[in-house]
Write a structure and sequence with these properties.
single chain, alpha/beta, 7% strand, elongated
Amino acid sequence: MVEQKNSSLFYSIASPLYNCSKKLRNRYKYVLALFLTLALPSFVAAQINVPDSAFREQLKTRYAITFDTENNITNPESASNLEELHLYTDISNLKGIEAFTSLEILESSGGKLTSVDLSANEKLTRINLGVNSLTSIDLSSNTALTHLSVCCNQLTSIDLSANKALESLAIYSNQLTNLDLSSNTLLTSLSCNDNHLKSLNVSFNKNLQALSCDKNQLTRLDLSSNEALTFLNCSNNLLTSLELSSKAALDDMECKNNQLTSLNLWNTKLHFTRQWLLYENNNFPFYYNSFFPFQKNMVIQFLGLLPVFIIYIISILFLVYQKHQDEQKNKRMNRWIFAGNIILLPAWYFYLSDPFISNTYMVLFVVAPFLIVGVLIQLKSLILKTIILLKRNKTTANHS
């Protein structure tokens, strides 16, 4: 009787525990099933697929990235450690680029890209996706970007507000109608030529040194804030005025094929070896030639050269004044001297109108021939005249 009571007592205690344990086992099964349901897709998603065969081939041959039979990357550690990718083949899809999380430089030009997702590549500082077929690009995640080239694509707009570190932008040969650079205050080089821009605001880009905005539809270009500008190409627009008087650093520019009527370049350092790049197809007055517009550095150069020029002319005239005993021979010598100086005139002209010192070809093929021929033609006559002068001075000294 006692054993039956004990057995009943054990059952009454063990039964709830067993039932509880069974419930826990069932709950564990549910938890395990839920874990597998959620975790397995994550493991699958971690496999990064590269569907483009040209992209895969470059990754295999140049960067030792390996793939399985389904084109998934099998050594993701190697991919995530790469800092540069230079791709030159005919790539049409960069899917799989998200595996390269340490990437700082990406170059994939001359392909068939229509879109690209670089949101996972936050360390990128240089991007070159030129000569593709991109219609849009999102760079909001690439805040470290300093150099961007997306030239020769089909972009109609671009948002660069997140790229505050940007220093160089090449976005020429696209279909842009607007370009907002107000957030890119560190920009030093901008090439936005061959677009459909009707306005361009670079007033926030005070560090800008090189600007190429030709082949657009600009009617106005305000460069008052760009004191560091050294190169400007604004040709083939609709500009009627251009203020450059304060651009002391400017040493090279083109502004042909506009509607300009005047140009103040007094403080610039331009080398006028290609005047037609300034004057061609504008509305300048007829007197705008190689001597005009005047520049401060040209005037200083001319004034520095003027004393030498005056001394030279006086010396030549003084020697011409020295007469040979033979009148006919004297006339011939004078003619040779005058002829030589006439030939020298183009050399003087090129020197005064073009600061050619930095142009080796101008010196070798234009100035030097005139200079050499002009000197040689009159050299014999000048020597003879000098001898006459010395003899006359010696005779005068002996008589005294």
